[in-house]
Amino acid sequence: MCTTCGCGQGQVTVEGETGHGHAHHDHGHHHYHSHADGVSEARMVQIEQDILSKNDHLAWHNRDDLTRAGVLALNLVSSPGSGKTTLLARTAQDMGTDRSVAVIEGDQQTSLDADRIRQTGARAVQVNTGKGCHLDAAMVGRAMRTLQPAPSSLLFIENVGNLVCPAGFDLGENAKVVILSVTEGEDKPLKYPDMFHAARLMILNKSDLLPYVPFDVEKCVEYARRVNPEIEVLTLSALTGEGLQGWYDWIAARAAGMAPAEAAE
Amino acid sequence: MHEMSLAEGVLQVVEDHVDTADRVTMVRLEIGQLSHVEPEALAFCFEAVVKGSVAEGARLEIDRAPGQAWCHNCGRGVEVSSLIDACPDCGGFQLQVTGGNEMRVKEMEVA
């Protein structure tokens, strides 16, 4: 499988996609050398190109499409079991009355999460990464073409549950939001610093369990700010609804700056 | 194992710069100390990914770029080796990464 471009030998599947429907991008294909006739000596070729340049290029396109449509896209990352889907289902239900909400669900297998989101009335498409451990910009681009998020809508991308790999892959989102549940231990930001460094917001979920678990919120926030002094923090319970308003306000504030570009075409 | 994706990314960049008749004998990467890569895992994946390609058997050289950050307390640049490091001078964590997160294909040798 090509996990970088998300296409190829068929392990990555995007729900609702008919056929392969994916033209390979072939940008930036340059030959910087010339062949001198009859010379076959070794030569050095200077490249200076980012390893993830293809992913970043596709992410740029995703971001461009989203910005033009005034869509706020958030990339939700966490370890498995932090409550991402519960939070999303609740958010889709509560915010869906004012704004169109669409969700891209990333999991290695099954469409359980997308089914759960669809029950709230929101539109959702499941991406199965097969053996892949993260979503990449190509997969999200394919899902966006299937989903066609409405102008000025909210697009949530629920990444594969994994606190490591998704940190390095730009999907074209407006911000990464890392979710940590209080049953996981407050030292996660130090153990998995890449993810907390890449995130704009840290959500401490399952706050209803705080009386029963030895989780030190203050310490966790201190650790997160060691690796990312700018990170914002919200504490909430997606189950009981405690603190959810703060999350909705945060989303609304980010979405406020986004308006669809004039329909020129 | 996102190193597998990264190894495929390296091969993609390499293939974009050569003809199919070329044989790549060495690829040099610059991997910053603060980047999301484990060089050993990347080297392992690279060897697997290049099989049957123009870069089969190519030597992989990895240059490590040091981690650099700006300390807001001290008002100057400092060197750090991980994202959880404190400022070596003041011990504070008001650090903003300014270098060492690169993952780049620098050059290659073509025979």
Task: Describe this protein's structure.
Chain A is an alpha/beta fold. Helix content of chain A is 30%, strand content 19%. Chain A has eight helices and nine strands. The longest helix of chain A has 16 residues, at 53-68. The radius of gyration of chain A is 20 Å and the shape is globular. The two termini of chain A are 37 Å apart. Chain B has a domain at 2-66 and 100-110: hypothetical protein PF0899 fold (2-Layer Sandwich). Chain B has a three-stranded mixed beta sheet with strand order 2-1-6, with helices on one face. Chain B is elongated. The A-B interface holds A 2-4, 28-33, 35, 40-55, 132-134, 136, 164-165, 167-169, 190, 193-194, 197, 225-227, 229 and B 1-2, 4-6, 8-10, 12-14, 16-19, 25, 29, 35-37, 72, 82-84, 86, 93-97, 102-111.
- The topology string of helices and strands of chain A comes to EEHEHEHEHEEHHEHEH
Q: Proportion of β residues of chain B?
A: 35-45%
Q: Which bin fits the share of residues in helices of chain A?
A: 25-40%
Average pLDDT for all residues of chain A: 88
Strand tally of chain A: 9
Count of individual beta strands of chain B: 6
Name the chain pair whose interface involves the most residues: A-B, 43 and 40 residues
End-to-end C-alpha gap of chain B: 31 Å
Helical residues, percent of chain B: 10-25%
Query: What is the quaternary state of this protein?
Result: heterodimer
What gap, in angstroms, lies between the N and C termini of chain A? 37 Å
Structural class of chain B: alpha+beta
Number of helical elements of chain B: 2
Would you identify the CATH architecture of the domain at 2-66 and 100-110 in chain B?
Answer: 2-Layer Sandwich
List the helices and strands and how they pair.
The complex is a heterodimer of chains A (265) and B (111).
Chain A: E1 13-14, E2 43-50, H1 53-68, E3 72-78, H2 84-95, E4 101-107, H3 112-118, E5 123-128, H4 137-147, E6 154-158, E7 175-181, H5 188-191, H6 193-198, E8 201-205, H7 217-227, E9 232-235, H8 244-256
Parallel strand pairs in A: 3-6, 3-7, 4-5, 4-6, 7-8, 8-9
Antiparallel strand pairs in A: 1-5
Chain B: H1 2-16, E1 24-32, H2 39-49, E2 59-65, E3 67-71, E4 76-80, E5 95-99, E6 103-110
Parallel strand pairs in B: 1-2
Antiparallel strand pairs in B: 1-6, 3-4, 3-5
Helix pairs in contact in B: 1-2
